[in-house]
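Form 7-S
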Amino acid sequence: MSMIKSEESNTALLWDKVASARGGDPKAAIAAAMLIHKFPLIAQRTGLSSEYEFFANFGMRSTDPEVLVAAGEALFLGKRLARNARMGMRYFLKANKSSPFMGAFMIARLDIFQDRPMAGKMLEKGAKSGHIPSAVLLARFRYRKIKRYLFIFALPILLIHSIKCGMLITLGLKDKDNLHMRFWRYKDAGLARQKELARVMPIDRASPFEDIDEVLLD
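Output:
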């Protein structure tokens, strides 16, 4: 009986997102695509399977960089949405236009751009906007390049890098009104061990699909 009720509630949720998407809501379109991907049998029974691609593409009309980044990451990872690196990059590029650092940070972290000029370019953009995880990754990016060609100076440069990163974090924590902007996704930059940062900002990103998170995790 509970399984029937669960299927009924999931079907109702899917139709609710579909209705909002058809009404022009890009975020709801992404949510609908996620639910179609999660529940293929429900999607097939309701005749919505064929609309997955439309909703996934329509979601790119969003102007919210948090939404765009979340969708792009889901596409790259193949979680919540079907794996599609090309579409994921399109989402990140759209986010790069909507935010001074969110899209850039995600693009720089892609495996295909590690240690390449594109990564440095994207991290520089984020760092200039005041995004500290971008600045930290940029410092590491430059350290790796120097270490490769001037390995004799690797240790002193590493010490300078550590001091610089510590100063950036300390300065950023003083900007209490902009902590979310300053430290967005700091855990992705390996800063989760920073105790003071973890204390004042335990959650390092928004959850734009919070209303369907529980269903997607089942």
